[in-house]
Amino acid sequence: MFGLMSNATMAKEAPLVSIPTHDAFFTSIAQHCGKAFGGKVAVDNQPSSAFDAKLVMFVRKCTPSELHIPFYVGDNASRTWIIKKTGSGLSLKHDHRHKDGTDDPVTMYGGHTLDAGYKQIQSFPADEYSKILFAEHGLAQSITNIWQIFIYPDVFSYRLIRDGREFRVDFDLTKSIPQPDAPWGY
Q: What are phi and psi of 113, to 5 degrees?
């Protein structure tokens, strides 16, 4: 009836197992694919002049299992958030590149959901890869990082929390802006 399929073909065609809150969260972001939005720092208990620039997020690439969202800070196009359905939840990775497109030594760090979360909010505590990477690069304070993403009809928020640190950027989803150039390395 179905004929013979190789394992590779079956894996490619098999849908990822997911739960309703993860699917709703993912879909809410994906509906903005191809659009860019301006943002502002809403919370920063350790202010840095690094974020005193034009802030833009761009929902640039969307597949049924992966979203690529570059985050621009002024002329700095080094950051891309990657949200991926894994079959056991959602992962968030931070792809950091140099201007020439090469990987930053601290890249692809992030976390994985530990529970269902909510259709509007997902939390990503630092995964083991990230903890080791942070330790190796003298960033011990980052080992307890938890990243959160909020998606509501009017706002997308990216939040970082850890002991003694809170940082959040809010993006206005009611007004799209022109698409920026591709992020570094893409």
A: -60, 145
Q: What is the number of alpha carbons within 13 Å of residue 27 lying toward its C-beta?
A: 9
Q: Is residue 21 in a domain? A: yes
For residue 25, the SS3 value is helix
Count of CB atoms situated within 10 Å of the CB of 37: 20
Q: Which domain holds residue 74?
A: 17-175
Element at 10 (helix H, strand E): helix 7-13
Could you tell me the pTM of the whole model?
A: 0.91
Residue with tokens 């179905």: 2
User: Is the C-alpha dihedral spanning 27, 113, 159, 142 positive or negative?
Assistant: negative
Q: What is the pLDDT of residues 11-21, one digit of tens each?
A: 454 567 689 99
Nearest to 140 by CA among 114, 106, 93, 101: 106
pLDDT of residue 15: 60
